[in-house]
Design a protein that fits this description.
Length: 233
């Protein structure tokens, strides 16, 4: 078959669902996963395959990749999207909170890479996008677990590139700012140089570009899509 096949996690709403819509419009065959039963509705609307499961559960991730291979026989693209880890005051967060975050933010990416990289190596190419957050570059006490572990995800993205770029497999991370899938207050809006939230469509179009052949020489990058919010160089 000639169509490209993409796996997208946390695809029942928000950025994940919009990524699915944008990639479907570009001709991708999709295998979508979410904990929510709403994934069935999203998948049905896009003629996609739905897998209900949890990105923190290895057996669910194995079932997701196996489904893609059984259905289409290949995996060209992987979009690692997740929910949000626990928030709280820095030292009030428990060990359990940190372990939940580790599974949700970092280990899901590592585990899925272990599953799809052998497939992509056999194909001779592939692209992986991790949807992260601007907090990976500018940590915030408002979300300490996310900031810490998504910074680790940025490091993993670089390490992955050092190891696998020569095989034709690319990995990049997209770091959204404040996005319109949730409401922000006026004080937050005024901190954004563009004076508005980003849209889920803007994130999805960035993901689609980074997965495309037009981005074939872009890998190992942690790209802020935040309206100028991130000040660090």
């Amino acid at each position: 078959m000639t169509e490209k096949v993409a796996i997208i996690t946390a695809a029942s709403q928000g950025m994940g669902a919009e990524c699915a819509r944008v990639l479907a419009a570009r001709g991708y065959k999709l295998v979508l996963m979410s904990r929510s039963a709403e994934i069935q509705t999203v998948a049905s609307s896009l003629s996609a395959t739905a897998v209900q499961g949890d990105v923190t559960n290895l057996a669910d991730l194995e079932r997701l990749v196996n489904t893609a291979m059984e259905q289409y026989g290949r995996v060209d693209a992987l979009v690692n999207n997740t929910g949000h880890p626990p928030k709280g005051d820095l030292l009030d967060l428990t060990d359990e909170d940190w372990h939940i975050g580790l599974d949700l933010v970092l280990l899901n990416t590592v585990r899925l890479a272990r599953l799809v990289v052998p497939i992509m190596e056999q194909q001779g190419n592939g692209a992986i996008i991790n949807i992260s957050t601007f907090g990976a570059k500018e940590p915030s006490l408002s979300f300490p677990i996310s900031s810490s572990l998504r910074a680790s995800l940025s490091a993993f993205t670089r390490l992955f590139t050092e190891r696998y770029a020569k095989t034709g497999i690319r990995m990049n991370s997209v770091l959204p700012g404040f996005i319109d899938s949730y409401t922000i207050d006026e004080a937050t809006r005024t901190t954004i140089p563009m004076q508005r939230s980003g849209t889920v469509k803007e994130i999805a179009e960035t993901v689609a570009f980074l997965l495309s052949d037009e981005a074939s020489y872009i890998t190992g990058q942690n790209l802020c899509v935040d309206g100028g919010l991130t000040r660090g160089l």
